[in-house]
Write a structure and sequence with these properties.
single chain; 215 residues; alpha+beta; five-stranded antiparallel beta sheet; 12% strand; globular
Length: 215
């Protein structure tokens, strides 16, 4: 097994961050390490144990470049919108600066997604998307995707949870020759990190969002 960082469970869960600027774009990621992370991801929940998931691992330079260009276009549109991360809480002296840093890092990754050594796209087989209770569908892949990111963090890899590429879902599907019934969930750039010292992120106090036995 690949060397893993000395992190206890709580440290792993609270320091698995979205990594953008600290992805090492020049260091190759062995496919064996990615496979280890995916073996762990496959222990994630799957509704009725159907396991109708598929994991696209993209290392081919031309395909990464093509996907990266679609992602860049999506980021460009996102950053121009009023709901972009960097524009939220602009008047809040505490949260505003944090949001602006996030906006800058989103722009950074938008220009470099195609340079990330490994792109991972977890997918599900679904002939059609239900009008209601889509949580039941996506609950069979998204927790496993998070498990992949945790496993990657434990091995010194950085990842980011991104979905903007879905603005060009059909175009990305064409790049990867995906069958029509295979639905993409998230796009997870994967690379070794520049340093491994990540810390918990600022979050709202628990008591501001906790509801016990009702609203």
């Amino acid at each position: 097994m690949t060397y893993t960082l000395e992190l206890n469970p709580d440290e792993l869960l609270t320091t698995t961050r979205t990594v953008r600027k600290r992805l090492d774009l020049g260091k190759p990621v062995p496919i064996e390490v990615v496979r280890e992370c995916l073996e762990i991801a496959l222990q994630g929940p799957s509704g009725s144990n159907r396991q109708t998931w598929h994991w696209l691992v993209i290392t081919d330079a031309e395909k990464r470049t093509a996907i990266g260009e679609y992602y860049r276009l999506a980021v460009e549109k996102y950053l121009a919108g009023s709901r972009a991360a960097g524009k939220l809480f602009a008047d809040d002296p505490v949260r505003g600066p944090v949001q602006r840093r996030i906006g800058n890092s989103v722009a950074y990754l938008g220009d470099r997604m195609g340079q990330v050594p490994v792109l991972v796209i977890p997918c599900l087989e679904a002939k059609s998307l239900p009008a209601g209770n889509q949580a039941g569908l996506w609950g069979s892949i998204l927790p496993a995707a998070w498990s992949y990111m945790l496993a990657a963090r434990a091995r010194g890899l950085g990842t980011a949870w991104t979905t903007l590429h879905l603005n060009y879902e059909q175009e990305v599907a064409a790049v990867l020759d995906l069958p029509e019934q295979v639905r993409q969930s998230v796009l997870i750039p994967t690379a070794y990190t520049i340093g491994t010292d990540f810390k918990p992120a600022p979050r709202q106090p628990l008591d501001e969002v906790l509801h016990v036995n009702g609203w």
